[in-house]
Amino acid sequence: MICLLKSGLLLRPLENNVVFLGIFNFTEGLLRPIALSIMKIQTSVIAYWLNPASQLFILMFGVILFSSCKKNIAVATNTVPPNTVAEVVIEVNPSYFLTAGLSQTISKETRTFNGTSIECYKIITNNTPTDHAMGPWCPTNILDGADKGGVWFEGGKLYDVDGSFIKNMASFYNSTTWQLYNTATGKINVTDTKDKCEAAARPNVDPAYRNFCVECQPSYYQGLKKIFYIPVKPQKASNTMPIMGMGMVVGIAFNGINFDPPAPTQAILGAFTLAPMDDAGGHVNGAVGYHYHAATGKSTSIKQTDGHASMIGYAMDGYGMFQQLDASGKEPADLDANRGHYDTVRGYHYHVASAGSNKFINGFRGLPGSFSVSF
After folding, report:
1. Number of other residues whose CB lies within 10 A of the CB of residue 31
2. Which of 11, 24, 132, 266 could form an SS bridge with 298, CB 3.0 to 4.6 Å?
3. Containing H/E element for 239?
């Protein structure tokens, strides 16, 4: 049924060859009079309208027309997009980065990613955080306390790697193969040279370092520089890019240290080795130097005046990264699959996962920049 001009026609026979003519608007399901007139017409026509069958037909026609108009109007209303306000997009603020962690002044450079030219900040940083100490990682004796070792994540929880943790690994992982210490002296097997650390930290662990606590010292990689290209203004991608694992970087902390993808814990444990993080959630390897796998609150953060979680850095796509919990200890309830959400103060941004989860975020909403190292 086609609704013409959202209106209907009503004719009512009166007396003395007079017909009451009403034109009605059906807008929003209401009969609104548009024009009313009294017309005098021929008796033969009046006779037609006075015919009961004809009146029934007119009545049915009017009902159908009214219903059709009402339905069409509802559909049209639903297809009109709601009033929306343009999304606030917050640019990267280079002044947030600690000057002491930079190798040179931050500059701008246009780069091409996935066929798209993007204006980026070029950020070159050192391999050393200036806002907290690095290490320790491995305790040296099963009698050592938590202050002598770092942390390890398992099952979503963070554990102190103290002497007791090393001693009880066989029961912790339910395998008698675990034996990282000398039962006579209590001394823990630790990779205490660069050659040992690299042999044990590689994907195909040297069998000689099975049942070792693996740590690499930052001093092994002096002169290492990290080069980040991060979009000045985040650009939403057509599809989310999942963070798959090693080989990419998640983001950058304000001290210039990279947030890395999940540590390959299954490969580490599969070789009966342990590679703890320090209390800041970081450790060292020969590929990228010192880097984070967890946000533990040790690196520089920027407090938000409205009680929102503090900001800790930027993701590689330029969106801000914030702590997991706000000032009241709550995680946002509306996080998307990437662990991001939107507000008008911070625009779209991410909230990192708990320190024990071995990850920061799940994917990039925007087009990510690039990362490389030089020695």
Report:
1. 14
2. 132
3. strand 236-242
In degrees rounded to 5, what are phi and psi of residue 247?
Answer: 105, -5
Reported as type and span, the H/E element at residue 321 is strand 320-322
**Residues with Cβ within 8 Å of residue 178, at least 6 apart in sequence:** 169, 170, 172, 211, 272
Q: Do 44 and 34 contact (CB within 8 A), yes or no?
A: no
C-alpha torsion 145→150→153→156, nearest 10 = 80
Q: How many residues make up the chain in this entry?
A: 375
- Our CA angle for 117, 121, 124, nearest 5°, is 130
Q: CB atoms < 10 A from the CB of 42, how many? A: 9
Q: Please report, for the chain, the start and end positions of each structural domain, with discontinuous segments joined by +.
A: 7-79, 90-375
At 75 the pLDDT is: 34
DSSP 53: H
Between β-strands 370-374 and 225-231, what pairing exists: parallel, antiparallel or unpaired? Answer: antiparallel
262-268-272 Cα angle (round to 5): 155
By C-alpha distance, which of 315, 271, 277 is closest to 298? 277
Low pLDDT (below 70) residues in the chain: 1-84
Alpha carbons 153 and 137: distance in angstroms, whole number: 13
- What do you get for the CA distance between the two ends of the chain, in Å? 75
Neighbours of 279 (CB within 10 A): 23
Treating both helix axes as pointing N-terminal to C-terminal, what angle do 43-50 and 52-79 enclose, rounded to 10 degrees?
70
Q: Which of 133, 134, 129 is nearest to 98 (CA)?
A: 129
Nearest to 280 by CA among 268, 288, 290, 289: 290
Dihedral (CA of 308, 233, 338, 322) sign: negative
Beta carbons of 256 and 245 less than 8 angstroms apart: no
Q: Count Cβ atoms within 10 A of the Cβ of residue 45 and give its class: 0-12 exposed, 13-18 middle, 19 or more buried.
A: middle
Burial (0-12, 13-18, 19+ Cβ within 10 Å), 223: exposed
Q: For position 276, what pLDDT does the model report?
A: 98
DSSP 179: -
What integer pLDDT is reported at residue 85 of this predicted model? 75
| Token pair for 17 | 């060859």
